[in-house]
Amino acid sequence: MSAAQKLLQWVGVPLVCVVVIVVVRTATFPSYQTRPPPCNATDEDFIPATEDRLNRLSRAITFRTISYEPGRGTPEELLKFIAFIRDSFPVVHSSPLVTREVVGNYSLLYRVEGSDRSLKPGLLAAHLDVVPVTEEPGWEAEPFSGQRKDGFMYGRGTIDCKHNVMGQMEALEFHLKRGHRPRRTLYLAYGHDEEVLGLYAFSYMEPLLQLKTPMAVHHNSKYDGHTADVTACVIEPSLLLCDGIGFGALVLQTIDDITTCLAQGFTPTVIWTDCDYCGPPGHGKNYWTWYFEAVNEGIEQRTKTRVCVMPGFYNLVSKSPYLTRRGAVGELYDFRFADMEHKVTTYIQPITAETRALVNHVISGYVKPAARFHNTVNAFYKSFMAETVNIGVHVRLDEGHIEEMGYFGQKTPGLEDFVRVVRQLITNATPTARNAGKELRIFLACDLDEVLGVFKAEFGDDKVLNIQAARGDDFKLKLKVKDKDSARSIGDEVFTDILLLSKCDYLVHDESSVAAVAYYFNPNLKSFFVSGDAADHRRLNAKPRFDSQELLRQAAVRKTSNIRDISVGQDWLWSGLETRSMLLLHLLGPDARSPISAGKCFYKNVGQSKCRKEFESLQPDSKRVKDLMNLNLGYQPKNAA
């Protein structure tokens, strides 16, 4: 049996169930649409297709508002189209009944105040973007011409979906001109990225929606009343994030989950199973404690109730307790040093002084380095850095990082840019160091031997410090081997770099999770963001407006009542069907790598999960999983011999 047949066999039953349910529900679902009365030219609300109205629609088609992929569109064209809509409908945009908000720079949300507030509001939705134009022959008219010929109008958006946008605007302009007011309040929502899933526009409409963090809740039947009367919150981020995610990113995801638990009033405990920087799963091993002190170890077995934070694979749009800018998406490892709202894209939230203060508060209480790291780092610091002014430099220039930066629309600075910033910093810091009777040293953490060679040649062997670490091809080889010793040695090197960077006086860096963790570990570390400007420098080195307790309270407000319990009844059953169906769709889709990696991680690690019982409903037969994923699971399911 081929791999494709095995895949279809595994997902076939739940997928067929989903299809049957959808078909039956569709066939039996009653229609709530009312049949409109016939439209006559003599009717008071008849809107004729005048030459002006047709010309406006034709002009709307000429804007090349193309969406290519999530986060990559045509912002200049969207802004032109938005301006055209504003100028074309002056009554709409001047009426006291209408409020208009441009959300996320490119989406539009209108509110038309109704006369009867007891009625629930209505929503009319459309979108401003269109799909790309193929190069295939056969176009009867230029796709962005808006050409009118033989009673038809040609072009992208004529039926998907600028005709809706313009039709709704024409109707609203028509009625407002005549002094009409709807009884029911109306919303008109026009997203800008519907053709590429619409996730970003969706997140910007969040005031109308409520996204919930899925958690499985377990009540301990053996609770005797003498153990801890708290709710344990089990955090296992490597259940899905074990392959292809960096050490720094995994730490940031863990901090995000810890904060989520704290904001809910739960007591967190952290478990790392298999990951690129941990080693293969062991019998009850918690690889978090290889790097950090244990966090409330074993509390999930001693409490009356525990909740299990579900892996992010189940949510299309993640909700972080750190998100404060409306429309931002992602979790803590998605935060950027750049403020991308005014530079590249509107969606990823920038790091702020408040972000840094709250993360540092969580680190101080729950992310404490294990004793062996504490001792190693302190010994290095005392030997080489204790009596000097230290400039920490983190340089990432490998191909994978450059590709990732390009995905977010950012450009990776060159090695010469890092050298330039360090040289300028040395010039500025030398008088201070000299007055204190100290030398300047550079601690360099980098991913290529070439970088180390250039820095030593530029600033001198005696001025540039570094630890012995795998770089370039050696690093890739270690990561590829995937044995326990190689994985741990990579993690050791990265974490040691992070801690030594955090002990410096200055940090020269660009976008990276390693730099972010070092920056969060030391709230007094002064940031020099190589790709940044003066505004970025001020933001990244500002003092927070609130103390850590107030910031945690604000996070709690954002997360209150924001849990969806998927551990009981039909909701849990549906989650299992939904997950398998989603996996099939992702495997067949263009972005297959991430879901496949997540699936492999899940079925490799779930046997070691403290929340295995909560996740058992998602486990198919062990042999099928092994055949499908080519995995050695290392555990026996209940129905195994």
UniProtKB/TrEMBL annotation:
<comment type="similarity">
    <text>Belongs to the peptidase M20A family.</text>
</comment>
<keyword id="KW-0479">Metal-binding</keyword>
<dbReference type="InterPro" id="IPR002933">
    <property type="entry name" value="Peptidase_M20"/>
</dbReference>
<dbReference type="GO" id="GO:0046872">
    <property type="term" value="F:metal ion binding"/>
</dbReference>
<keyword id="KW-0378">Hydrolase</keyword>
<dbReference type="GO" id="GO:0006508">
    <property type="term" value="P:proteolysis"/>
</dbReference>
<protein>
    <recommendedName>
        <fullName>Peptidase M20 dimerisation domain-containing protein</fullName>
    </recommendedName>
</protein>
<keyword id="KW-0862">Zinc</keyword>
<comment type="pathway">
    <text>Amino-acid metabolism.</text>
</comment>
<dbReference type="Pfam" id="PF01546">
    <property type="entry name" value="Peptidase_M20"/>
</dbReference>
<dbReference type="GO" id="GO:0008233">
    <property type="term" value="F:peptidase activity"/>
</dbReference>
<dbReference type="GO" id="GO:0004046">
    <property type="term" value="F:aminoacylase activity"/>
</dbReference>
<keyword id="KW-0645">Protease</keyword>
<comment type="pathway">
    <text>Lipid metabolism; fatty acid metabolism.</text>
</comment>
<comment type="function">
    <text>Secreted enzyme that regulates the endogenous N-fatty acyl amino acid (NAAs) tissue and circulating levels by functioning as a bidirectional NAA synthase/hydrolase. It condenses free fatty acids and free amino acids to generate NAAs and bidirectionally catalyzes the reverse hydrolysis reaction. Some of these NAAs stimulate oxidative metabolism via mitochondrial uncoupling, increasing energy expenditure in a UPC1-independent manner. Thereby, this secreted protein may indirectly regulate whole body energy expenditure.</text>
</comment>
<dbReference type="InterPro" id="IPR047177">
    <property type="entry name" value="Pept_M20A"/>
</dbReference>
